[in-house]
Design goal:
Layout lengths: L1 H18 L5 E8 L5 E10 L2 H6 L11 E11 L2 E2 L8 E6 L5 E5 L10 E2 L4 E8 L2 H5 L6 E9 L2
Parallel strand pairs: 2-3
Antiparallel strand pairs: 1-2, 1-9, 3-8, 4-7, 5-6, 5-8
């Protein structure tokens, strides 16, 4: 009887683990100049579904200059973001379907509910630490490229 109970508990625990959501999808993102030179490479988390896009970097208290988040939308659109529940300043980089930067909202105000909008159609958004764009010379002549590397457990 004891062996049956242990086996039942093991199966239940295994099923519980199988239903837990996987960690974030991770990858690397390059900022590339028009001449093809990579300006900076960062590690990114991918926000590809409604839930991860809605949460973004909310509640994060730290973000290094080598980290960020890439939001991927199904099609180009007029996008808007806000900083509610985000306690650190960010540079929000709006990127068109061709992977070229449309506009950059620099050093956004933490915890603000003011909408930050793309100035043209955008399909991607990169969030990085506030001041990143100025520090590395990222502007509308820059494009991005990325690759997925792993899913965190």
């Amino acid at each position: 009887m004891r062996h049956i109970l242990i086996a039942a508990l093991a199966v239940t625990a295994f099923q519980g683990c199988a239903n837990e959501p996987a960690g974030p999808v991770m990858g690397e993102l390059d900022f590339v100049r028009s001449d093809g030179e990579i300006v900076r490479t960062i590690e990114v988390e991918f926000a590809e579904d409604e839930e991860t896009r809605a949460t973004g970097l909310m509640h994060r208290r730290q973000l290094s200059l080598s980290q960020g988040m890439l939001f991927i939308f199904p099609a180009p659109d007029s996008l808007s973001f806000w900083m509610a529940n985000t306690p650190i300043p960010l540079d929000i980089i709006f990127v068109g379907a061709d992977s070229t930067i449309v506009n950059i909202a620099k050093r956004t105000t933490p915890l603000s509910r003011e909408f930050i909008r793309s100035t043209d159609l955008a399909q991607y958004v990169v969030e990085v630490r506030g001041g990143f764009s100025d520090r590395f010379g990222i502007d509308t002549a820059t494009r991005i490229q990325w690759r997925k590397t792993e899913t965190a457990e």
